[in-house]
Amino acid sequence: MTREEMNTLVDKTVRSAVENVCGTMLGCEVVVGKTRQIGHPLQESDGVVALLGMAGPWVGTGALTCKPELACKLAGAFLLTEYDTVNDDVLDAVAELANMVIGNLKVAIEEEVGEMGLSTPTTIFGASFTTKIGGSEEWTLIPVEVCGGELLVQICILPNDRGKAHNRADLVGHMLVRG
Description:
The chain is an alpha+beta fold. It has helices at residues 3-25, 68-79, 88-113, 168-171, and strands at residues 30-32, 36-38, 42-55, 58-66, 117-118, 122-133, 139-146, 149-159, 173-177. Strands 1, 2, 3, 4, 5, 6, 7, 8 and 9 form a 9-stranded antiparallel sheet that branches.
């Protein structure tokens, strides 16, 4: 599978997963924006980020990012209750949303290239922080308007050259906190 074919698969699968999870399961109106290829995503944020790693014949990272207000709305739709502030339930709901979207992508990739692994979601919440997810210079960014806010889905996936270990910075995200 070429990088171009993988990018097409990522776009198609993530769009479908977001529409199904947010539209059908959460009952939210969903408008998936234009997919773009971007380099080295570096996002300043006041909000919530959920990260998952993927490993197998291809390796990479998936990230979902949103503002706290949207995280609360998504968690409320998911758990059928209202949230005014981000708490453990909200973080768990965003992590599960990321797990469902990136998990759907993992299954689609497995159908094309073989068995893949998926890490446990990591969620980050705070004010004035920057996430930098290491890896390739090519990321797929899919903006999604859902429940009155913007959810960003970012995917970076690279071929795992003959099972060689990649530099850890190529596979995981890290966070910088500003004072």
